[in-house]
Structure formats: C-alpha cells, structure tokens
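Ticket #4471: structure export looks truncated?
Reporter: QA, pipeline team
Priority: medium

Steps to reproduce: submit the single chain below to the structure queue and open the exported record.
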Amino acid sequence: MAEEIRKLPIGVQSFEVMRQEQFLYVDKTRYIYELAHTGRQYFLSRPRRFGKSLFLSTLKAYWQGRKELFEGLEIVELEKDSEGAFEPYPVFYFDFNGQNYQAAALEDVLDKMLGRWEEQYDCKGQGTLSGRFEDLLLAAREKTGKKCVVLVDEYDKPLLEVLENNELEEHNKAVFKGFFGTLKSYDEYLRFVFITGVTKFSKVSIFSDLNQLNDISLSAEYAGICGITEVEMEENFALEIEGMAGKLGIAREECLVELRKMYDGYRFHPDATGVYNPFSLLKAFWGKELGYYWFGTGTPTFLVRRMRDMHFDVRQLETGAIHATVGALSDYRAENPDIVPLLYQTGYLTLFGYDARRRRYTLGFPNEEVKYGFLESLLPVYTPAAVPGRGTDFFALDDSLEAGDAERVGEILTALFASIPYTTDDAPFEHYFQSVLYIVFTLLGQHTHCEVHSSRGRADCILETDRFVYIFEFKVDKSAKEALAQIEEKGYAAPYGADKRQLFKIGVNFDSESRSLSEWLVG
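Actual output as written to the record:
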C-alpha cells in the first residue's frame, strides 16, 4: 500500500496558496473571529519564522470576503449567525519582507506599494507618502462605502536590518512617523488594523502615536495564535509523527519526547500552553530528522557581537537568573543597555514563570534547538580559533575527548583561550573564561554527558564518554596543582570509584594578566 502523500507548508506564507493547493493547515481561524468581533486595532510580536505572515495573509483573505477559502474551518461555523459575515472590505496590506533595507530606500518600497493601490482606486499619486496614503483611505471609503482594513507585516524589518547604522535607523523611524501617523488622524475611516513584527520599538510613531493599538503579544488568550501546540501537532501531524518515529527507529512516545525537547517550550504567557516553532517542526517532519533548522535561516550578527561587547554572562541563560519586568518585555529601544527584551522578542529566550509580587518574569532557553544553535553562534565570536579546520575547533576537542587524549584536550583549550580578543575596557578576564568554558562544555554536552557546575561541593565540570570520565577544576591566578588538590580533598572522584572507565582528574589555572590558560595538570 502506497504511503499517503501530504503536503507540508514549509515556507508557505500565502493562505490562498495553502488552501487552493491543499497544504496541511493548522486551523487558527477562531483567533480571527475573536479579533474581528472584540476589537479594532492590534499589535502582535513574535519571533521570525513563527507564522506571522501566514496569519496576516489569513486575515487578508477574511477581510476580502474570500469565504470559499475558509470552507471546513472553524470560523465558518462561528460566523454562521453573524450579520455581514465575510463581507469584503478594502484591504491595504503592507508587507515589509523580501527587501534589503541596507540597499533599498524605505521610501521607494512604500512608493511602490501605494502606486499599485492608486491605480486600483483612481488616485493621482501626488504629494507626500503620508498624504498619498490619506488620499487612498478616503478614495477607498468613497468607492466602496466601507471602512478600510490595514495590515502591516514585519513593520520592524526596515529597522532591525539597519540597527548598526544609527543614521539610517533614525531616518527609517522618521519615515514611519510621518507615514503611519495617518492611522491616528484617519481613525474614522478604519475598520480593522493589525500590525506584526519581531520587536516593539519605542519612539516609533506606530506605538507612540497609536496608543489605541491593543498589544496582544503577552496575552494569555492569544498565546497560541502563532506556533503549534502539542494538541495541534498530534491532531494534525499524526502520520508525520509515526513516519519520523519509524525512520529514527524509536517508539512514537519517544519520538514525541524528542520533538518536545528540540522544538517545544515557547511561552508567550507564563500560564499558557507552550508552542512549537512551526518552521523547525515542519522541516523535521519533512526530513524525518531532528535538526537545527531555525538557525539555518540566520542569527543576527549584531545580537551576538553585542552580547560579547556588553560582557553578558551567558551562563545565566539556563540558570533561571534572567529576569525582566512586564514593561521591559513589551518594549525595546536600540540604545537600551539591557539586551534581555531583544533576546526574548527574537525568540532566543522564553518565559519560564512570573513573580506577581515582584512583577517580574523569569526567562531561559525554550528548547535544545535554540540553546545549542545560539551557543554555536556565540563560540567563534568569543573564541576566533574555534573556526573548523584549524585543529583547534570544537570538533577536534570532541575527538580528543572521545580518544582519551587529555594532553591534546589541554592544547586545544589553551589555543581557544589564546584567541579570546583583548579588550581595552575594564571587563575582567574571569568573565571571558567563564563564558567560554560554559559555551564549550555545554556544546560538548550534545554528544557526551557533561555537567557544568557553579555551586560549592561539586567539581566545576564533569564530562563522561563511553570509555572515559574527566573531572575538571578551574582556578584563576592560583595554580593547577591547587585545583588538582581540591579534586582529591573534596572527593569529587568518589562516585566513580567502581566505574570501569578510565578517570582523568584535571587541574587548570587561568592567568588574568596574560589572559590565557597558563597551567594544565592531569592527575
């Protein structure tokens, strides 16, 4: 019997294509019903590759009255008694994807968008961009007798792409201020407004002028509006789960556990159900492999460099030590020294919990794909010698550990620390060595059992392979001999007394003046 062929919508952002070409669709239309019937103007922030564009395309089809595309979906039943359901409205859909804003002027992009609509509504296309948009809203109302719907997809792309060019960033903010200020002045001509982005920049007129925008980004009610919940996954992709389990040679329940560890865990409200990254989940089902797909679409280099330059302690990312207030997560300013809001909004951190008394969130990595993918992006920035092919990279380190070559492990780590960029500021070397150790040994934990500790009474790091056990103790401005003595005195090796694997006790000392790994002693 031939295997049923099902079309997975990888990269499909058009609701019309999704429905007409019979791609698998996870029904999110009840959210559209609730939005349309309970309010008028909204903002939603979600990470990239999280289904924002598809949701906006679905909104577009709804407001255009394309009822035929919704047959069999939940919204048709919800709307059956609604007066004027699926009536068409004039829709202005601003899509800021697909442009390189380092090369293309934001004004030119807006000019092309307006030009298409001006032909449709017989407008002259004269005057300023904001004036032309005002004329369009008036003309559409006059021609159709209906108020207008404005949908803005990835409004912040022209800002995020130029974050390292302050002049261009301020210019694009000014363009937006003039253009979208129209939405406030012409509120009486608007039926519905929905704006999406990765970040919510303050001091951009969309938010400073449009204080009537309802930000649903941290709303429990809309926490599942994008992404795929566990229930949705099991209901819609049962065949894909079975197929993947078969390919990997594991049971269905074990496959679900692995998928959960790798792609689940995003929470956009502390009390809401977690959601899976839809892009990564679909790619995993398509290839029947547990890969790091989201990071293949690119990690912002400015984000990685900024973490290094601000001496961010990366160990906090999974210790529960990252906190943020409600206000901080809902807003972002490029000049803000706090990088946590941007890490959250871009999807590298997610909500773990909320302390109502202190009004603050706790955040951390959502899943293994993000954790390991992000640390892999950080490693070559913190230690340039980690570039593959030089014999001092992560793979060479992993091979040496698997081979039991403790001296070679020491040589590679010494080279990695020697490549740490020297800075002229007052950042202590201890920050760098702790961050690099955390990154290196956490990445090794993908392939071996590796625990990095910071509490007293436990070794700094224990790494286990099939044939070897390594116990590390690290010191700064002391001696490797002292570190080795601590392993003995504290009995760190005692749990492995009956273990048949070869045991390496390794004392390491870092010299803060030379900013190097100065001593490596194997006991």
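Status: closed, not a bug. The export was complete when the record was re-opened. Leaving a note from the reviewer for reference: The mean pLDDT is 88.
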